[in-house]
From TrEMBL:
Pfam families, A to Z: AAA_lid_14, HTH_8, PAS, Sigma54_activat
PANTHER family, A to Z: C4-DICARBOXYLATE TRANSPORT TRANSCRIPTIONAL REGULATORY PROTEIN DCTD (PTHR32071:SF57), TRANSCRIPTIONAL REGULATORY PROTEIN (PTHR32071)
Name of the protein this chain belongs to: PAS domain S-box protein
Domain Sigma-54 factor interaction: from-to ranges: 253-482
PROSITE patterns in alphabetical order: PAS, SIGMA54_INTERACT_1, SIGMA54_INTERACT_2, SIGMA54_INTERACT_3, SIGMA54_INTERACT_4
Record carries keyword Transcription: yes
Keyword annotations of the record: ATP-binding, DNA-binding, Nucleotide-binding, Transcription, Transcription regulation
A biological process term (GO) from this entry: regulation of DNA-templated transcription
GO molecular function, one term: ATP binding
Amino acid sequence: MAVGSPMSLLVVGYQKDMLDKMVEWKNAGIVSLVGVLDSSSNQPYQDIPIFNSADPLDEQEIDIILIVGNEETFHKEIENWRKNNKLILSAKTLWVLDRVAMQKREIQILTGKQKFYQTILMHSHEGVQYVDSKGIIRFINPSFSRITNVSSEERLGKHIEDVSPNGSLNKAYKTRTPVFGYKSSSVGSNVETVANAAPIFVDGKFIGAVATFQDVTEIKYLTEKLMEHEQEQKVINQQSSDGYESKFSIDHIIGESEEIKEPVSLAKRASRTRSTVLITGESGTGKELFAHAIHTESKNHDKPFVTVNCAAIPEELLESELFGYEKGAFTNAIKQKVGKFELANGGTLFLDEIGEMSLALQVKLLRVLQYREFERVGGLKKVHVDFRIIAATNADLEKLISEGKFREDLYYRLNVIRLEVPPLRKRKKDIQLLVQDLMDKIAERIGLNPMQLTNKGMSMLCEYEWPGNIRELENVLERLMNESSASVISDSLVLKHIQSLIGVTSSQDEVDSITYPSDNSLLPLKEVEKEYIRKTLNHYGHSLESKKKAAHSLGISISTLYNKIRDYHLE
Ligand SMILES: Nc1ncnc2c1ncn2[C@@H]1O[C@H](COP(=O)(O)OP(=O)(O)OP(=O)(O)O)[C@@H](O)[C@H]1O
């Protein structure tokens, strides 16, 4: 009898109910029926052959003889079969066969289930690997080979310790505890996988361990792409919502003197390229105006123009302001912040007061300028950027280098196109044009009718040296326009303001609505300045907005005010 094939059965005697049962077993694959041996019957039962004598039967082909009829008729044959150790059953001992049939049925059911589950495992998209209680690999599915590039021949029969000592399966096998979300990369195929593994116990007995895993390379790639897109979108949203755009063009730069024509034509040439520009010049001469104009004239004018005032932002915040930070980078980083470098991508980054940047940050800036990439604070991923740098300073960078306060290598990186904005005293010729232009703008801004100066008033303004340059001129004009009751500003009012600027204070000076110390004339100039700034700050307040107003009122830039606050320890 071949293993797994049904036992062949010969029925001795014709008994219909018994034959019904045999047919049932036959159909269930439990027995195969050789036939019925019965001398009196020759009626075939369904398709079962009927034999009247045992002559045509081959004994070798019979496993079991079931006697349900008269034993005497075939006495001789039965004796012979008994001698040859054939299994002879009667109706009374048929339960043996019944039991066999039952077990066979159970085996069939289990085999069916096994096939069912095996088919699922074979078709699973996840890789599956199983080791027995001795750690020998007994099963891998096709997905395992697909993902890892390791064939079943290479794996089956090997000990897990020998082929994958650090994998999740060996961990679960050795520790007899489950392993979840175990990340690794397959050596054979270079793919990233995430696995879960578990020991298997049956009735409390350890019988092996199984691991299932997925190829997450694509998921990882798609997740990264998605995050990149989200980040880009975030940057775009911020760029457009925060109004990072240049506000002035070359036409806003007033002046016809040779001294101003030269930087203007250099600015026009610079706007045709993406080269770095270093703008130098005294405070209030128009460096920021030039930076805006260069961007506006460039072909990237519709891209962001992002200003960073290196003096106005506290040192400890400047890094995160420039580089941005990842969520959780430090205690207050409750969400990710996009830095100015990223915001300026594609456009211009204007670094005002670059001379105020700390040496530590200069090193980092230099690296960004060299490699055009950086990492956010608390982040590992490289962010690529492409922007043009325009830097401005009223400090003497060469002097700062000699004092060890500014890096020479950064200086050479920035000093590609050098644009020097001349102070007002070197282009007095432009003052008249500027005064007219500024008065028109101020009138519009503060809601007054256009105003004028007399020739004498104008020449008084032209003669003054304007240490605070155009911003100072602008502030004085605004005060004059506010104080004048006529549309033509009186010469005496102009004189009074000029006198107050050069220190010959008249008793009714408008700015002195803030009281000086009674003996201010005896104080050194710096002390007076410190006291004056302190009172102005007290008057306006200490918020950023208040400081802007205070700087405006003092006729200095916000960064100069910050410098003075720091130098005089006013905060
Ligand atoms: N040539 C010019 N024509 C018209 N307005 C000008 C000109 N130059 C400067 N201004 C005006 O003067 C004021 C100061 O200019 P700006 O802020 O650009 O100077 P700055 O050199 O950057 O100053 P700081 O060094 O203090 O930052 C601004 O209101 C600006 O519009």
